[in-house]
Write a structure and sequence with these properties.
The structure is a single chain. This protein has a domain of 233 residues: Alpha-Beta Plaits. A hairpin with an 8-residue loop joins β1 and β2. The chain contains 14 helices and 19 strands. It is α+β, with helices and mostly antiparallel strands and 487 residues long. α7 packs antiparallel against α8. The protein is 33% helix and 24% strand. The two termini are 43 Å apart. Strands 15-12-14-13-17-18-16-19 form an 8-stranded antiparallel beta sheet. Strands 6, 7, 8, 9, 10 and 11 form a 6-stranded antiparallel beta sheet that branches. A 3-stranded parallel beta sheet has the order 3-5-4, covered by helices on one side.
């Protein structure tokens, strides 16, 4: 986030002073509280599950991974697959196993402008794809709100994003090649080796290594930003009439405040409305980088540590986004959201994510129940964004069994056993409320949910794990998520 020039000098001086003071404190805290991993110890972005592995191996050639699978079979070693390791529940590693780090296996193999497709290796990031397709006036259909993640990782969790006309990532996949547990490489599509298609996408690396994939693209477009402030009980009808009901609205994002004085009541909405007929795309299609991280991270830090920081951040966000109203931005740049602010490391606490999916017509009642529950809980809830994802049950572990609002929650809690246990109890309570409203929750995060909650949210859980054991009878591909829920 950047400070808009329309902010007053008083606001600017106050914010700058607060940022500088906090930045100084944050730097010292980072130096003295940084967690040091031991030799061969690995963890993910949340740092809740440091685990000793045999080794981490990367490679730029397909044969590297074929040889690793052969070695693992000969020596009975477990394998896990990792990208940026932003999953937070040990999905990308397993104790005493070998981790296949795919980040250097990242070539753009082919851009086909005529058929609007791209063929890439699984370690390529969405940033790599955007840089490859932008010169052709093309863009991706579906990706998460940051472009730092690998394609293989995004496929493995079946991501969704801001686009309200396309649902989950699985919709945009033509085919991929899979290195199976027995060392064989197969091509997987909806018609070829099709039994793997709904299992591997959203399958958390449990069926083999995704080597490369062909994705569908769409036209890059020019959007006008439309910002609306409203109360939470107006959102459901607003979305139906002004967003989903307006074919010119192509992308959408909502935010609801966690500031104590207006907790889960006030919202502001950002819609991206097609403006391609009004201006030339070429005047706006230069790809942007991160902007304003110098202030975003400290401001997020203030809201992490102080209630007044949450209020300050919310008020500044409102000013910033309302002053964006009417600006023009390309589809590719909408999908290049800031990511550096997500980087947080402290030896005493951690930022963790949760994501809950609730049917659109349950929104008001769900917010009321969530607010009532959280008022008596000691949960440091920093931020909530809301997206929309259409019903899609192509993946066996589908989270969108209806047209859903997706609530992305950023929380902070301590790393001690007591702090984790308290967070687990509260999060299980939030998941219970979500399930009571016919919702579900996203699986890439820490193992707070119970097995019973998983089977309720994902009715095909038993089928998924049964197919895992059928297609990988030696359980060659393993991770801590499978250990917790699948064995």
């Amino acid at each position: 986030m950047k400070i808009n020039r329309t902010l007053t000098k008083r606001h600017l001086l106050f914010v700058t002073a607060a940022v500088l003071l906090y930045a100084s404190f944050f730097t010292l805290s980072y130096i003295f509280n940084q967690h040091r991993l031991e030799e061969n110890e690995i963890t993910d972005v949340a740092r809740l599950m440091p685990t000793k592995v045999k080794r981490v191996t990367s490679g730029e050639e397909e044969q590297t991974f074929v040889d690793l699978v052969k070695e693992a079979n000969e020596q009975d070693i477990k394998l896990s697959v990792a990208g940026k390791r932003h999953s937070q529940g040990g999905h990308t590693y397993y104790r005493d196993g070998i981790v296949l780090d795919m980040n250097s296996y990242n070539k753009i193999l082919k851009v086909d402008p005529e058929n609007k497709t791209i063929h890439v290796q699984s370690g390529a990031t969405w940033d790599d794809i955007q840089k490859a397709v932008n010169p052709y006036g093309l863009a991706v259909k579906v990706m998460q709100s940051q472009n730092i993640f690998t394609i293989g990782g995004s496929l493995s969790v079946n991501v969704h994003g801001r686009d309200i006309r396309h649902g989950s990532l699985i919709e945009t996949v033509n085919w991929f090649r899979l290195l199976k547990p027995d060392g064989e490489i197969i091509k997987v599509s909806r018609t070829e080796n099709s039994e793997y298609f709904p299992l591997v996408i959203g399958g958390y690396g449990l069926f083999g290594v995704i080597l490369d994939v062909e994705l569908q693209l769409t036209e890059d477009e020019l959007y006008e930003i439309r910002t609306t402030k409203l109360n939470y009980d107006e959102y459901e009808s607003f979305f139906a009439e002004k967003v989903k009901g307006d074919e010119n609205v192509k992308m959408h994002l909502a935010r609801i405040t966690t500031a104590p004085d207006k907790f889960l009541t006030e919202m502001y909405i950002t819609d991206y409305v097609d403006a391609s007929s009004n201006e030339s795309l070429e005047d706006y299609n230069e790809l942007k980088g991160d902007e304003g991280t110098w202030i975003t991270k400290p401001m997020l830090g203030l809201s992490r540590d102080f209630d007044w920081g949450k209020t300050l951040l919310w008020n500044l966000q409102k000013k910033y986004f309302s002053n964006q109203d009417g600006e023009l931005v390309t589809r590719n740049n909408v999908m290049r959201s800031e990511s550096a602010f997500l980087e947080y490391e402290n030896g005493k606490d951690s930022d963790v994510l949760q994501e809950y999916f609730v049917p659109v017509n349950e929104f008001d009642e769900y917010i009321d129940d969530l607010r009532a529950f959280l008022k008596d809980e000691e949960l440091n809830l920093i931020n909530i964004t809301i997206r929309y994802v259409e019903k899609n049950e192509d993946a066996v572990l589908s989270y969108s069994k209806d047209d859903m609002f997706a609530f992305v929650l950023l929380l902070n809690h301590g790393l001690s056993e007591e702090d984790v246990a308290k967070a687990e109890k509260t999060i299980q309570g939030m998941i219970d409320i979500t399930l009571q409203h016919d919702g579900s929750y996203y699986l890439p995060y820490y193992s707070y949910p119970t097995k019973s909650q998983m089977t309720t949210a994902y009715p095909k859980t038993e089928e998924f794990f049964k197919m895992k054991r059928l297609l990988d009878p030696e359980e060659r591909f393993m991770n801590e998520f499978y250990e917790e829920y699948g064995r």
